[in-house]
Amino acid sequence: MAAPATGSDPHLLFTDIDEPGLATLEVYERRGGYESLRRALQMSPEEVLEQLKASGLRGRGGAGFAMGTKVSFLPKGAMDKYLVCNADESEPGTFKDRELMQKTPHTLIEGMVIAAYAAGANRSFIYIRGEYVHQADALDAALAEAREAGFLGEDILGSGHSLSLVVHRGAGAYICGEETGLLDSLEGKRGNPRLKPPFPANQGLYQGPTLINNVETLSTVPTIIRMGGEEYAKLGVETSTGTKLVSVSGHVQRPGNYEIELGIPAREIVYGLAGGPGEGRTVKCWFPGGSSSPVLKGEDLDLPYDFDSLGKAGSMLGSGAIIVADDTTSIVALAMKTAKFYRHESCGKCTPCREGTNWTVKMLERIDTGEATPMDLEIMASVQEHIIGNCLCVLGDAMAMPIGSMIAKFREEFEEHIESARLRRGLGGAAASDSALSAQGALHAGPETLLGPDGAGGQAPGEHGGEPGTHKGGA
Amino acid sequence: MSPLGWDAPADLEKEPAGIPDPETTDVPAALRAEIEAHTANYPDRRSAALPALAAAQRVHGWCSPEAIEQVACVMRVTPAYLESVASFYDMLETEPVPRHSVYVCTNISCSLRGADELYEAALAAAAGDADVHVRSFECLGACDIAPMASVDGVYVGPLTPADLPAMLEDIHAGRPVLPQLQLARRLVADPHANSQAFPEHPAQPAAPARGSANLELPTESPRTAIGEQGGDRPGPTAPVEDAPDHAEEDES
Question: Quick one: B182 and B87 in the same domain?
Fold first, then answer.
């Protein structure tokens, strides 16, 4: 494995991405577009699949599942098989697919035709979020050109392989980025996630075998065919091969999309590429992979930015969206923003997610209004634990993980916030007796059993009542 | 804000509506053709529910009972089926809304850069404006131009409250909105991506023609693309989402 390059990352997806006319077939072909498709169609589907497997390409949508393996899960046979591109890019902080679809839509189309050939799929769809009007228009225009040129449709380039492709516009729902919610939405229903198994590879769209991949993943396929899977795998690090688009946003001086080689230090992305936070400010915390990833602290910026390193550090690479919050940020306000988003987007199907997101917001509001006690932090953390793994999909987990990590890593700040809000309200320190709290309606609203002494751990009388004057003001 | 049947009582005397009778349901020819083109795209015609409702919303301004009935008639499904779909998605309106929409992103990245203040300022700037619908929206996927807004589907940013008067003027005049701030013309942030200095991309027109524009809508119908209408109402009809203390979230 090559050592991760630093400074001059190789560019595969973003090479001259702003070249005028790249969205048109003419310029795309002049730059060697659809050559990979011609080459792939000379190979057998099994050979194409071998290249995908050899590349080590892991899904770029969030879960990081090996793409080649996913393709190989599709059953053989003559039934209708589907390829669905997940372009419902709604994870807060993520905007990489937007740039690809808008500027080089043919790369995605070419990647889809090749992937469909490898998977034996004959019908394909791009499910794009409804807000991306401009990008969907770009895709529709490219689609018409590709169809006209014979890269789509019946008997593509005389190979016998046929594929239809439809751009399907969503209508504003985060949950439709979840693969089974997306399938229900594509079938014309409310976007409620399905029970798994059966997995989409066996019973997906219209109950047929379905391969679902992210825009960036599919857009990488032509590059893999061009370079060869083994060459591609030399980029990046052993278990995270290739390059990755990262979307950097929040408190940085140059927010935007950057193509990096996986495995470079996160600090190089946040400071080197995006310019770091403003003058005199430091990084308080950062989401390494979208708002669903547990937050890391400023000192974690030396971690290599790849799937497994972030996983070992208790977070995840997710969609590759880095959101930076500097030292002026109130962690309670950040938690509130995060929790409110998931409350709004929960589809309501599973109780732990529907109720858990709602109660988390309510408890955060209590913290802000001075009704909470530090005991509420225990309850809030326990609510997060009860969401994780107990729903059909991971939307609830996606709130529970970052909120849980914020409470664990910034507990002191939460406690100070609770304390100062209570003082503002005239409730005195948190060590005040239960009866006084009860009189003010400040007892937590959680299950009765959590009121026991164990549940109230970490807040022995006197611990918080000491020096109220030193607590900083709430945000 | 709440869908009928949740806070408002259902009429129990009324028979449930069946699939509308084509003989008695009047559907504009262009809308019918567009919906039929969408249903032909899928193995199962119900898959066309979202694009068909979006098309009807462009004609009617919102998913009105009449709009739903027309879609139901062409798709051969019940109005109730389509209502269940329309009430799930933020961009499908189940209440009448002003013609132009401004979605202000107030999600994490934008709010770290002042989106909440921008949203308040936008509400104030458009107060009393019968044509402009300002609402907060979840992450619109443009954190690189935070804080930003989607004006009738066109992304503009970074915005400050000082940009709002010009933005509203552009909307009313039917001009491209804040051309200098449009996302579509920006180059990628990555300094190593482009091997040479490319020119900026041309800005988008104010109200972009929609993709499958092979079907012309009647010119007199309001030009309201799905990307131009929307709502931040709670998606699911779960009780928790309609709790009264949640009302401040429904910025209508």
Answer: no
